[in-house]
Amino acid sequence: MTQSFRLKDVGLIDRNKKLSFKFNGKKYYGYEGDSLASALIANGVHLIGRSFKYHRPRGFFGAGVDEPYAIVQLYRNGETEPNIKATEQELFDGLEATSVNCWPSVNFDIGAVNNFLRIFLPAGFYYKTFMWPKSFWFKIYEPFIRKAAGLGTVSIKHDKERYEHKYEYCDLLIAGSGPSGLASAYAAAKNGARVILAEDKSRFGGTLLTSEVNIGNKSGKEWADGIISELKEMPNVTVKNRSQVFGYYDHNMLVMSERVSDHLPETKEFHPKQRLWYIRAKEVLISSGSIERPIVFGNNDTPGVMLSSAAKEYMKVYGVLVGKNPLIFTNNDSGYETAIEFKKNGINPLILDTRSNPKSEIINEARDLDIKIKYSYVVVAAQGYKKVKSADIAKISDDKEQLGNIENVKCDCICVSGYWTPTIHLASQSGNKTKFNEEIDAFVPGISKQNEKTLGAANGIYTLEETLKDSFEVGHEVSKKITNNENKVSFPNVVEKKSSIHDKFWCVPLPKGKNYKRFLDFQNDVAVSDIEIALREGYRSIEHVKRYTTLGMATDQGKTSNLNGLQLVSKIENKVVPAVGHTTFRPPYTPVSIGAIVGREVGKHSKPTRKSPMHSWHEKNNAVFVDAGVWLRPRYYKRGNEDLFAASKREAKNVRTNVGVCDVTTLGKIDIKGPDAAELLNRVYTNAWSKLPVGKARYGVMLREDGIVMDDGTTTRISENHYHMTTTTAQAANVLSHLEYYLQLVWPELNVNVVSSTEQWAGAAIAGPKSRNLLQKLFPNSDVSNEGLPFMGYMEGDLFGVKARIFRISFSGELAYEVNVESNNGNFMWEKIIEVGEQFEIQPYGTEALSTLRIEMGHVAGSELDGRTIPYDNSLEGLLSKKKDFIGKRSLIREAFTAEDRQKVVGVVPLDKKTSIPEGSHLVKDSKAPSPNPKLGYISASCWSVEYDNPFSLAILKDGKNMIGEKLFVMSPLKNKIIPVEIVSSHYVDPKGERVRS
Amino acid sequence: MLHIKCPHCGMRSQNEFSYGGDASVKRPELGKDISDQDWNNFVYNRKSLRGKHWELWQHLAGCRQWIKVERDTGSHEIFKTLKAEEEIS
Questions:
Q1: Is B1 in the A-facing interface, judged by CB distances under 8 Å?
Q2: How large is the average pLDDT for residues A662-668?
Q3: pLDDT of A807-848, one tens digit each?
Q4: Residue A949: is it exposed, middle or buried by C-beta count within 10 angstroms (0-12/13-18/19+)?
Q5: Where are the alpha helices (DSSP H) in A308-447?
Q6: Each residue of A258-276: pLDDT tens digit?
């Protein structure tokens, strides 16, 4: 098919660049500068999809963001995206799109049977119908609804495209580049303000592109082009097209999505597909214009019924006729402008004006052009199924209640204008208290809460001269507040045609004996009758009516339906519109792709990755890594075909028999200095610290104020007023904040400084019976004997020329040391340990072996210190000082915390000594008890004991103190396991702790 | 996203801060006897006010200072910010 609806010379498209595209598999041609919508209309395609609920045929209703119908599935460069408005999608060569909401095809759609069942699909249908029988829900109702609903298909492939985030600051953000946006931006920019001007469409100028006006002896478009090119040259101005400011958040933070590459066949190298801008503006000017309002009549959703402004835009911007036999249905002068445009292009329209005797310049011009006009006439109903074929029209009485004789006139499109609705979304999102403007019969922004101001049509000002005057003035005033400059630009001479007042008529009554569907919300198929039902059923609040009927809840957020819905509710309720009020406007103003919101934070970039200085050594030596917070830690070092279980067992066993080395760089480290450091430790740890000598380490537990264990670790006294604190890997950041909180806010009199030194030190734990022998070789000049460096001792040493800190501390329960060197020397230290350790059969061990070692020793760690346990629960009550107060101490004497049968950590061994116990399983007395089976405790950590070669677990068990020796059952419904077990001491290996002191 | 004036660093976005609760709560003195009720009030009981409220924030990704912020919990308006050592007026 050729582009038979394309005009010859009109429009802003580039006829030298012909583009081919496919819609529903059929090939068409358009031009560069077309939207997908305009290219389809040029080819005479008006059937785009099916409606959401009744599957009625859908065409085009608008030409921009307000489009409720023309939503397509887009295919671009091997990717697919749903919920794309054909009116917003720019045409590119090779574009492919398909209809949504129809099966098997848009022409023959089985779901359209809903249209004939519609009396059974009233408001609240979903709530009322699919209630019973219950068993039908999963098998019948839900799959049916799922198939029937939705606006396309989401791709489940990994999105190859890149999305970016950008943070920006400016004096003035101006949303919309119509007359008010351009004028205010120009005035402010010339006065030195840093301005961002954002335009949703590809072309700047808004209504100036389509209206017949004259500014400073130029056409609207020429004037807009001149202003834009001047603004683009100014260093203090950022001008962005294809950029929608969609959300207005607190403290003048606005978010804008820039469609960088969506208009291209594929994204250019190093370019993102979309960019999300977070803009913090000192002042915001909202120049988002207005959206034409439909008039409600029978079958007003038939393809070919559209907004009159859209018809004009298709002609003037895209050089496309929406029809060759148009009917214009209007209650104001805007319809005449569209009619005049048709006439100029050789088409004879018929105007139906609801007003009886309007007079204005524009009307005179239409008359002079011999355009046929019928006054006091309305469209009663559109006729035709997949496209308008004719219209039933009638004269309407002055009170707008009585229809005259119905006549049928042939037409191929009906262009409707019910006057204009200011786009107050951004203003409302900012917290602005909107008010109702009687004159324009719509809401406009009222009292600002943030630094924003709405200009032009968005503020209900519909004449160009007033808009420009006001916008130049505001642009100047607002910029003056910021820059203190006084550079005023001169105001151009404006010529525009004067309009007469509009008729507040919005809904055509039904003729006798007909029950045409009269739609309010075109995307969600909400008709007048649905609202009537909702109100009859007792819904009163507009917010409830909205949710019950889904009015305004579609992806277009009711841009064309809200006000007519309010009119209807107020009419039935016999209230004025402002008394009904409007529903809340929420961001985003237009749909935003999830990719843009996520930005670069996908996959491994969703969080930072921290690596120890020894990371590359681990990699080279077949380490299998595990995420520990944001750190990557070796979980085990794979040898041959070993799996996790075999490798970790081997590594743990080697620690118990020879010596192992583990990368403990990730442990949190905090450097504490100051004369009151010991006092701080005394207050944050449960045990006493004042007598810890220099060169000694101590294990400590810290609580939250509610008595729950927060973290544990060792702290070493490096010198008189200098301590080195270690925390668990997971709690490092929290502990630092915790210390800062008490030092800055609670006890500012303490003279102490704390700073994180986690990244400054690389750490290696050397553990096993041969660890001292290894240490002696590593530090030949130091006395590391049991006397020279006793358990919990600390010394500095010289590791082949590198300064090292040596701590005799143990997590594994073996004779063990921890060596720290400056991070830069971490790899050197590690290689030396491995090299020298070879003669002692050293093996590196990962976190899995580390866990095994600590579990069978009964050392509590993160899985027991889980934010729900107190010191007693972890058998740490011996560390509670009776003499001094500390954070959380007062909480420990509360009744539940001192109960006789309080939970406590215990060991768990399966009776068969074979079956591994899943972590998280429950402990019960009787495995056959009826459910809910009383739970006595839970398995916190499990391992395979390398000492006894059988499974061993730790558990937090009610009355654990008195349960040693009891036989219980472990139940894991998830793993479908019931395991008979015996409760033993949590200290399964070396209960007296002799090895660490050996 | 809130825009918070750190008394040390100036205006900064909310994502540099972490929230720290009611700034009017005073920790009971160490070592002093205190009733269950008073301790409970300190640890758990907070008013969830709508309106002006002094709260603590830490400039975590900045100077790491704890600061006091007077904010309207309904409108999110911030009236005043103070350094940790400054008394709420």
A1: yes
A2: 97
A3: 999 999 999 999 999 999 999 999 999 999 999 999 999 999
A4: exposed
A5: 308-316, 334-344, 361-368, 425-429
A6: 999 999 999 999 999 999 9
Q: Say how many C-beta atoms besides its own lie within 10 A of residue A672's C-beta.
A: 24
CATH code for the domain in which residue B85 is found: 3.30.2270.10
Which sign, positive or negative, has the C-alpha torsion A696, A701, A704, A707?
negative
Torsion B37-B39-B40-B41 (CA) sign: positive
Q: Where are the beta strands (DSSP E) in A406-468?
A: 407-410, 413-417, 420-422, 433-437, 442-447, 452-454
* Contact assignment for A737 to B43 by CB distance below 8 Å: no
Cα–Cα separations (whole angstroms), residue A448 to A153, A426, A498: 40, 11, 31
Q: By CA distance, what is A888's nearest residue in B?
A: B43
Scanning the structure block, which residue is given the tokens 């921290």?
A: A610
Closest residue in A to B19 (Cα) is: A737
Classify residue A522 as left (phi > 0), alpha (psi -120 to 50) or beta: alpha
Residue A425 tokens read as: 């979304």
The answer to the question of residue B39 being in a domain is no
Inter-chain contacts counted by CB atoms under 8 A, chains A and B? 55
Predicted TM-score (pTM) of this structure? 0.89
B82 reaches A (C-beta below 8 A) = no
Per-residue confidence band for A554, with pLDDT thresholds at 50, 70 and 90 = confident
Average pLDDT rounded to a whole number, residues A454-479: 97
Q: Which of B1, B20, B44 sits opposite A741 (nearest CB)?
A: B20
Local structure of residue A607 (DSSP, 8 states): S
B20 at interface of A, judged by CB pairs closer than 8 A: yes
Query: Which of B72, B76, B82 to mutate to probe the A interface, most A CBs <10 Å?
Result: B76
Q: Which amino acid does the sequence have at A580?
A: V
Judged by a CB distance cut-off of 8 A, whether residue B45 touches chain A is no
For β-strands A163-175 and A195-198, DSSP reports them as parallel
Asked whether residue B36 is domain-assigned, the answer is no
Q: Is A563 helix (H, G, I), strand (E, B) or coil?
A: helix
Structurally, chain B folds into a number of domains equal to 1
| Residue-range domains of chain A with CATH | 14-129 (3.10.20.440), 163-290+422-495 (3.50.50.60), 294-418 (3.50.50.60), 899-998 (2.40.30.110)
User: Which of the residues A167, A432, A745 would you substitute to probe the B interface, choosing the one with the greatest number of B C-beta atoms within 10 Å?
Assistant: A745
For residue A72, give the 3-state DSSP assignment: strand
Hey, is B15 helix, strand or coil?
helix
**Contact across the interface for B58 and A250, Cβ inside 8 Å:** no
Subunit contact A740:B64, Cβ cutoff 8 A:
yes
B42 is a domain residue: no
Q: Would residue B58 count as lying in a domain?
A: yes
Report pLDDT digits (tens) over A579-631: 998 888 999 999 999 999 999 999 888 889 999 999 999 999 999 999 998 89
Give me the amino acid identity at A785. Answer: S
Q: Considering CB atoms only, which of A744, A886, A890 is closest to B34? A: A890
**Cβ contact A394:A405 at 8 Å:** yes
**Cis peptide before A932, with omega less than 30 degrees from 0?**
yes
The answer, for A252 touching chain B at a CB cutoff of 8 Å, is yes
CA neighbor of A2 nearest in space, from A21, A29, A22: A29
Cβ of residue B56 closer than 8 Å to a chain A Cβ: yes
> Of the candidates B1, B39, B60, which has its C-beta nearest A890's C-beta?
B39
Measuring CA to CA, which residue among A254, A206, A247 is closest to residue A468?
Answer: A206
Q: Which one of A249, A705, A745 has the shortest CB-CB distance to B84?
A: A745
Q: Is B50 on the interface with A (CB under 8 A)?
A: no
- Domain range for B20: 1-24+51-89
> How far is the C-alpha of A758 from the C-alpha of A610, rounded, in Å?
11
Interchain contact, A706 vs B78, CB within 8 Å: no
